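This week, think about what follows.
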Amino acid sequence: MKIIIEKDFEAMSETTKNILLGHMSQDKRVNLSITAGNTPVGVYKRMVEIVKDSPDYANVHYYNFDEIPVPDQAEGITISDLRKLYFTPANISEENIHPLTVENYAEQDKRLALDGGLDAMMIGLGADGHFCGNMPTTTSFENLTYKVKVTGDEPWFVPGEMIKGMEFVTMGPVSVLKVKHLILIVNGAKKAEMVKTVLQGPVTEEFPASVLQLHPNLTVILDEEAASRLDK
């Protein structure tokens, strides 16, 4: 595990952008899985400036690692957010976007293997210790990509937009540990204790992200506030 501590959100976003662009600049097909949400906003803002309409990154293919469907909406929450934050402003070709959905999730692991596997995945950390859609109450460390029922207790549950009992899909711990380079980004003092728990505590399904300690090529990028509880 490599831990990088930057002064603030802007600095950690710049570092993360540079690491991703390092992967993307290879002279081969590059498969990336990237996260939605607030933490990567600064990363995407920087990447759009470089990637938009550039033929240098036509080799990069994108995969979402979880999806939450919305009733009567063509696409789910994750891919919609990724389009808004990055795909659309960067003018990413539709041919390079490979959505994970509740309809195709059972083929996700096979599809990734046939495509050469994921070169890198950028993920965030939930305040309850979840990563991707792997929640403390539903995760088994033996899961590949799987389907989960929404309980309504999830931190990201949006009343009126989501329905209790609906199903979402996520790449499980086994699938994520197959990624060649895993990049975890976390900012803010509110997650400092959980950062310490999942990075320096025992590996337990009670805090699903603790399993990331087992990844052979894990890079953790934190701002000083998120890193403030770590043992030096």
Observations:
- The chain has a mean pLDDT of 94.
- The domain at 2-223 is CATH 3.40.50.1360 (Rossmann fold).
